[in-house]
Structures are given as C-alpha cells and as structure tokens.
Amino acid sequence: MIEVVIAGAGPNGLMLACELALAGVRPVVLERLTEPTDTQRANGLVGQVIRMLDRRGLYERLATPGTTPEPAPRFTFGAFPLDLSDLPDNPLYTLLVPQLRIERMLAERAAELGVDIRRGHEVIGLTQGEKSVTVELRGREPIEAEFLVGADGGRSTVRKLTGIDFPGVTSDDSVSRTGHVSVPADLIGPDGSLTVPGFGAIPPFQHLRTEHGLLAWAPSPDPDGDPKLTTVEWGQPPEGEASLEELRAGAGRVLGTDITLDPPTGPGPHLMRRLFGGNTRIAERYRAGRVLLLGDAAHVHSAIGGPGLNLGLQDAVNLGWKLAAEVRGHAAEGLLDTYESERHPAARRVAMHTQAQSLLTRPGGEVTALRELFGELLDQPATRQHIAALLAGADITYDMGPATGPLVGHWAPDLPGLRDLTRTARPLLLDPTATLDPGPWSPQIDTVPAPDLDTALLLRPDCYIAWQGTTNEGLHEALATWFRAA
C-alpha cells in the first residue's frame, strides 16, 4: 500500500512531495494532465516562502547563482506604492521568476528525492476506510493509500468527493483582462516603467488605480519574454473571445487615453484571457479522515499582491513533516490536526487583506475618500511595517503549548548557518550551552552547538520556534508536544 497519494502536480503538491520525501516518505503524485502545462500564471514569489525555499536549498535553483534573498525596498498594496526602504526589519521578500520555472524546479527536485509522479492519472472517486483510502482513477486500476492529499486546485475534485464545504463570497461585477503584449522600445524606461503619451509613466509591478478602473504593467522575468498587461473594470461583461483589441480598448478607458499595444513577439506561450468576478473561499475544514486539502483546494482568493504561492507552499511545508510523522508513527497525539488549526488562520489573513485591497482599487468617490485617508496612514512607518508583515505572512504565529518566551511561536530569524542546517528538514535544537539533553527524543532531533546565541532554540522542521531557554526546563515538555519519544 502506498503511504501518501497527492492529487495534483502543481507547485503546492510538488512542494509537499519534496517535504515528505525529506522526512522518509515516498509519495505518489497523480496528475490529470499528461504533460506539464505551458500556461503562464504567476510572475514570481512574494513573502516568507522565498526564505523558506532558501532554507531548503531551492532558492539558488531559481535565482542568480551565488545570491541570497534580500528584502524588497518597495512593493504595492491596494494600488498604493509601499515604501519599505526605511523599515528597521523589513520581512517582505520578492523573487521574479515565472511559475512555470517554479513548477519545473520542484518537479526536478521531487524526482531527485525519488518521488513517483504519474501523469495522465485523473481522480474520479474515493472511498475511505479505517486505515486507508482507495482512490479511483479514470481508466486505471484503483490505488490504495494511507492518506490522500488534494492539491488539485480551486475546483478540487478531492474536496468535492470528500464533501467538504467551501463557503465564501463570489463577486460578479468586475471584468479582468490579461495578455502578453509588445510595445515600442522607446516607451520603456530603464526601471521597466511604461510611458503612455497623454498619461505619463506607469511603474512596473504595481497596480495603478484611476476613477475608471485598474491597470498593472509587468515586464517579463525572462529576457526574451513578453511583458504582461492587466486591466480590471466594473460593468457589463463583454461576449466573444478575449483579444488584443479588447485589452487595448480597456486600457484606454482606464487611463483615459489611447495606448499602443502590439502582439507579443517572444517565444511564448502567450496569454490572453478574460475573467469575470472572483471568489474568496476557505474550506470548512482541511481534513476529513484520511483526506487532507492543500493550497487552492483549501482556499481561493484574489491574486492582488501575489499571495497565492506564499500561502500554498507554506501550507505544504507545515503539512509535510506532520503527515510524515503520522505515517512513520513518530507523531505526537493530535499533531496532524494542528495543520488545520495553524494554517486555516493564515488563509483567513490572506482572504482579509486581498478583499481589502480589492475594495481599495474600485472606482467611485467613496473609495477615493477612503484612499485619501489610507494614504495618510501609509505615511507612518508602523503602518507600513504592519502591512509588510501581513503581505509576507510573517505576522503568523503558532500556539506552541506550554512553551513560553519572546521567540516561541515565531518563524526563526536568519541566524548564522541556519540556511545550511535546515536543508534536511529535521527538527533542530540550537544549543549555546552544550549542556541540553533531548533525552529519548535524541534520535529525531539534530542538536547543534550555537555559541553565538544567548538562548537555546528548538526549531520544528518548518522553522517555527517551539521552545527557547538556557536549561533543560520545559524542553522535554516541548518535545513531547510535537514528537513521539523513541
């Protein structure tokens, strides 16, 4: 019997597969599509997940060789420019890299770790038993596994088959258009901004709000790739296929002047799509027996601010070690249930701020007044610090049970040497005293001298701090909270 089956070979499912493999579990990934998709989606990563990828040795596979993550000096929130350059502790990181490259990198890493990825395998049914779940496939023999994880997107078949409700709200009064385009080279500034005669410069990777709609200009992360233009308007949706002419006309209405847009010239694949409305929904529960939900299968929301991969990939890092411990018999009682109790609030935070940002971008005098007030609040560094942490997901803390201390429950800061110690995804006890004793948990914990620290730290595999102290007091209680003694 297979230990874990993952339905969906997108970034979230592949990340979970890698995390499980690091913990000694060899999952099988089932993907409905016979070939990797060539559809262009996200332009990059935003948030704490970038540093998490660095701690797994994966950042260097996506970024310029020899570089490490650096905080973004500026970003955007609700079509406001967000200056982060003066923050004493800027938690917001960004990485421009097409989602296709992220998926390809994670698939390569999963293969290195021995993960079995089976394409052309479509889940059409499931039956749960006391100790296993049987997965039915279209045109293939059923598969039996100890656990099934649905990482199969917002329209998740696994979620529907399991009967988990997906409550939330749907808006149907907006029309979003996105397409790859080309523009005359003399209209592109050295910073990547687009100059529109009669309007002015449009900064890259920011949302521009006018009284008529929203526009975003995104140069390609690839040198040979085409830039992407997005518009959002409110009103009656058009009919027929999305087209460059429609995108050009919409951009002209938003800006109040004509804009030069030509067909893309790069190698492609090229995107031209139209979307109506949007959904903000969070699964009623993340687990039903031996079936769990991950990423978009558990939550959908507006893409504004680019939080989707940050949320979903961190779901995977949170779930991976817990599910592996359950499979291997190393899990403390109730450990797997903490996946939902910890990550459901994170999804609610993302739903909250994407809904707030969407409201701030709408046209109308009332919204303009709200923006005037909000702009005054953004002049305060404390407000920008708060929003940066919100966008990064760095404001999320977890309940660590009996352990106390100012760092307990927080994601571990970038300590010296930590990025090398966390590549194996094992729990870490950073011990500056050289006296701490994990006792019967020693086989499961890597105890590492840390003479530069003034307090010892116990890090879970997802890099959250489960205990801190200078003596053994409380250490065994903390270990028992998260791990079963050998």
pLDDT below 50 for ≥5 consecutive residues: which ranges?
A: none
Number of helices: 11
Can you tell me the overall shape? Answer: globular
Q: Sheet with the most strands?
A: 8 strands, mixed
What fraction, in percent, of the residue positions are helical? 25-40%
Oligomer kind? single chain
Average pLDDT score: 95
Count of strand segments: 24
What would you report as the Rg, rounded to the nearest angstrom? Answer: 23 Å
Give a brief rundown of this model.
It is built from eleven helices and 24 strands.
List keywords for this structure.
single chain, six-stranded antiparallel β-sheet, 486 residues, alpha+beta
Describe it for me?
- This protein has eleven helices and 24 strands.
- The chain is α+β, with helices and mostly antiparallel strands.
- The strands form six sheets. Strands 1, 2, 7, 8, 9, 10, 18 and 19 form an eight-stranded mixed beta sheet that branches. The protein has a six-stranded antiparallel beta sheet with strand order 14-15-16-11-17-20, with helices on both faces. A four-stranded mixed beta sheet has the order 22-21-23-24, with helices on one face.
List the helices and strands and how they pair.
Layout: E1 2-7, H1 11-22, E2 28-31, E3 44-46, H2 49-55, E4 74-77, E5 80-83, E6 94-96, H3 99-112, E7 116-119, E8 123-128, E9 133-137, E10 140-150, H4 157-162, E11 168-180, E12 194-196, E13 200-202, E14 207-210, E15 213-218, E16 228-234, H5 244-255, E17 272-282, E18 287-288, E19 291-293, E20 299-300, H6 308-328, H7 338-361, H8 365-377, H9 381-392, H10 418-421, E21 428-431, E22 446-449, E23 456-459, E24 465-469, H11 475-482
